[in-house]
Amino acid sequence: MVHRIIARAATLFMLASYLIVVSMPASQAQGRVTVVRDAEIEALVTEYAAPILKAAGLSRSGIDIILVNNRSFNAFVDGRRIFIHTGALTQAETPNEIIGVIAHEAGHIAGGHQERLRQQLKRAQTMAIVSALIGIGAGVAGAATDTRGLASAGVGMAAGGAEMARRGLLGYQRSEEVTADRTAIDYLNKTGQSAKGMLTTFDRLAGGLALAGVNVDPYQISHPMPRERIANLEELARKSRFYDRKDPAQLQQRHDMMRAKIAAHTEGAQAVQRLFRQDPRGIPAMYGDAIATFLTGNPRTALQKVDALISKMPRNPYLQELRGDILIKANRPKDAANAYARALSLAPGTPGLLQVGYGQALLATGQPDLVKKAASELQTGLSREPEFANGYRYLAQAYGQLGDIANAELASAEGYFHAGQYRDAKLFAIRAQKRMKRGSPGWLRAQDIIQYKAPG
C-alpha cells in the first residue's frame, strides 16, 4: 500500500480552500495537534518520503505523514504515522534537510523503537512501584519502632527509585535516537542523497540553544545534545560519496514555494519578504506575495499576480488551484471551476483535495447540471480522501440542491463523524436512515455511524 498523508480530523476550519487546518488527537503530542491539509505540500513531502520509505522497507506498510501547524522545528512518530511541523518545513532551507528528518523518523519506525519504548516504560513503572513499596515498608518499620532516621530513609528510597527509573528511561531514549540517526544515514546512502542536511539541522538546533542561553543537563533529556549528535555523525556523513550532492534546482524551487505558502498563511506578507529577502523578485517570493494578497481580501490584484506566475510556469497545477480559489472569492465560480479542472489535468494522479475543490467551485455556480456534476466530483474526491471532513459539507449542499435529502443527511453525518463530533453524526445518520431503503449501502453506512463507539 502506498503511503498517504492523512489526518483523523476534529474541529475543522478553513484558512482557504487549499490550505486547511484541523485539530486532532495524537498520543505522543501534547493533547491535541493542529493539522494542515494542502495538496501541494502533501505531494512534495510524499515525494521526499517515497525513496526513504522504500529503503527502510516501509513503502508497503501504510505509513501516514501528517503535517502539524506549529512554528517549531520538530518531527515525531506515533504508531505508523510521521508528524512533521510546518516550522520544520519553513526553516529548512533545502529539501535535503527535511529528507534527513524523514529518514530519522523512518529509522524509528523500521527499528520498532516505539514498541520497545513501551516495554521500557512498563519496566520503569515497575521499578518505580517496587521502589515506592520498599520505601513505604521502611517508613512503616521506622514508625513502628519510633526510628525517625529509618522512616526518612524510606522516603528517600522511594524518591530515589523513581528517579533511577526515569533516568534509565531517558538514557534508553537517547540510545534509540543515536540508532535512528545512524540508520537515517544508511537510508540516505541507499537513495543516493547527502547527509549534510541532517548536520545542518543539528547545527541549527545547537545554535538555538546557545542563543537562548540554555544550560541543559544532558542526563535529563530524551535526545542527545545537538553538538554531540554532530560529533557522532559528521565523520560518517562525510565519508559518503553523496555528501556534496545538491538537491535538483527544480526540487529546490518547489521547496521554496512550499515555504512561501506556509509563511504567507501563518505569518503574512512580511514573513514572506523576510524569508526571501535575498531574492525578492524570485518565483517563490512572488508566489508568497500572491497568496498573501489573496488572504488579505484583494482578489483582483491577487489574480493579476498569479496570472503573472502562470505565464512563467504554465504547467504548475497549484498555481491553477490558487487561481481557482481567487476566482471563487471574486464571485466567478464558473471560471474558478475551469481553473480547478486545469489543475486536476496537470496534477500527478488525481488528488482528492483538488477534486473536492473542483466540486466546490461547480456547486457555487448554482446551475443544476453543474451542481449534479459537483456532487459526482465531490463524492469521488471524498472516496480518495474519506477523512476530509470539510468536503462532506459541500457534498451535503449539493445533494440538498438536487433534492436528494437522504444522501444530504448522510453526507452531513459523515462530515460530523470525521470531525469527531459523534453525537451530531449519529443524529444525522438516524435522519438519513429513515429516508433510505433498509439494507441499502447508504442505510448500512448510516447504521455503522449509529453503532460506532468512540474510543476512550
UniProtKB/TrEMBL annotation:
<dbReference type="InterPro" id="IPR001915">
    <property type="entry name" value="Peptidase_M48"/>
</dbReference>
<keyword id="KW-0862">Zinc</keyword>
<dbReference type="InterPro" id="IPR051156">
    <property type="entry name" value="Mito/Outer_Membr_Metalloprot"/>
</dbReference>
<keyword id="KW-0378">Hydrolase</keyword>
<dbReference type="Pfam" id="PF01435">
    <property type="entry name" value="Peptidase_M48"/>
</dbReference>
<protein>
    <submittedName>
        <fullName>M48 family metalloprotease</fullName>
        <ecNumber>3.4.24.-</ecNumber>
    </submittedName>
</protein>
<dbReference type="GO" id="GO:0008237">
    <property type="term" value="F:metallopeptidase activity"/>
</dbReference>
<keyword id="KW-0645">Protease</keyword>
<dbReference type="InterPro" id="IPR011990">
    <property type="entry name" value="TPR-like_helical_dom_sf"/>
</dbReference>
<keyword id="KW-0482">Metalloprotease</keyword>
<feature type="domain" description="Peptidase M48">
    <location>
        <begin position="38"/>
        <end position="236"/>
    </location>
</feature>
<keyword id="KW-0479">Metal-binding</keyword>
